Amino acid sequence: QPYTPHHPYNPYNPYYPSYQTPSPVALSQWTTTAAPAASTTTPTSSSTPSPTHNGTVPDSLDWREVGVEGPVKSQGTCGACWAFAIMVALESQYAMKHAGNVSLSEQNLMECSTQNYECRGRNTAIAMEYIAQNEGIGTEKSYPYLSYQTHCRYSTASIGGRDSGYVPITSGDENALKKAVATIGPIAVGFDAGHSSFQYYESGVYFEPACSSSALDHAILVIGYGTDPEQGDYWLIKNSWGTSWGEEGKLARNRDSNCAIATEAVYPIV
Fold first, then answer.
1. 48 vs 266, which has greater pLDDT?
2. Does 207 map to a domain?
3. How far apart are CA 141 and CA 158, in angstroms?
4. Is residue 100 one of the residues assigned to a domain?
5. pLDDT at position 127
6. Residue 216 is part of a domain; what is its CATH number?
7. Catalytic residue list
8. Where in the sequence is the domain holding 99, given as residue range(s)?
9. pLDDT band of 8, cuts 50, 70, 90
């Protein structure tokens, strides 16, 4: 289906006005030290191989249209994108399987998943394994986000969600990612976001010719996909920089030019 932005349509590549400035996190995010990619992390017994799907999938899909997606969140000046991508992916799975929306605690994950780098980077696989081994994660209400690290204050009395591990999508395979988005739901992915065109993105189908297929400096959520007759195939992406960035916190990303979007793609098992 044609891509219809919330703002007036901008031609491809989308423009970013000179008066617009990126959010504080956009300025600090690019200096974070990335943790090892999920695709290179040794899976534990709770992890399973990427699923195969031989059937057809829809040509376009937007999980917002069926009420799976909650509001866009903001990570503030803390480089905790990894925690936001995982929590929103887990929230989406709960919404799909339990017919209800729950907001889970990024702060809980950031402070208690000690193998990660808190505000300085991420490893999505390790974080999902932490939730499984911890037998749950707190709700946002019981453990609100602060945008900085203190100490672990998790209580089993405030569990809002659980997973039993994670599933990695075949690295670099955008077709496998498309099938996973269609059959599983929103997928947490790594992304090469270290470009001013991304930091200042406003609307339209995003394309960055300098994107890398291996440089992962951000984590986001793929919530759908489609095809525009003029701009071609695109991914629908949900960011964690609040609603003032992009199209109310979301972006349409050109498919098949990667930006590392399929290099590290995972989802939680619920």
1. 266
2. yes
3. 9
4. yes
5. 85
6. 3.90.70.10
7. 81, 218, 239
8. 24-268
9. very low
pLDDT tens-digit readout, 112-126: 987 655 687 667 778
- Locate 138 and state its tokens: 């707190």
Identify whether 86 is part of a domain: yes
Residue 84 identity (one-letter amino acid): F
Q: How confident is the model at residue 48 (pLDDT cuts 50, 70, 90)?
A: very low
Write down the pLDDT at residue 122.
Answer: 61
Partners of 224 in the β-ladder? 62, 236
Q: What is the phi/psi pair of residue 4, to 5°?
A: -120, 105
Does some domain include residue 129? yes
Strands 61-62 and 187-191: unpaired
Examine the pLDDT at 28 and tell me if it is beyond 60.
Answer: no
d(CA 164, CA 156): 16
> Looking at the 3D structure of the chain, how many domains does it have?
1
Which residue carries 């919404």 as its tokens? Answer: 95
Q: pTM for the full model?
A: 0.82
Could you tell me which of 258, 199, 261, 218 has the C-alpha nearest to residue 82?
Answer: 218
Tell me the three-class secondary structure of 141-178, residue by residue: CCCCCCCCCCCCCCCHHHEEECCCCEEECCCCCHHHHH
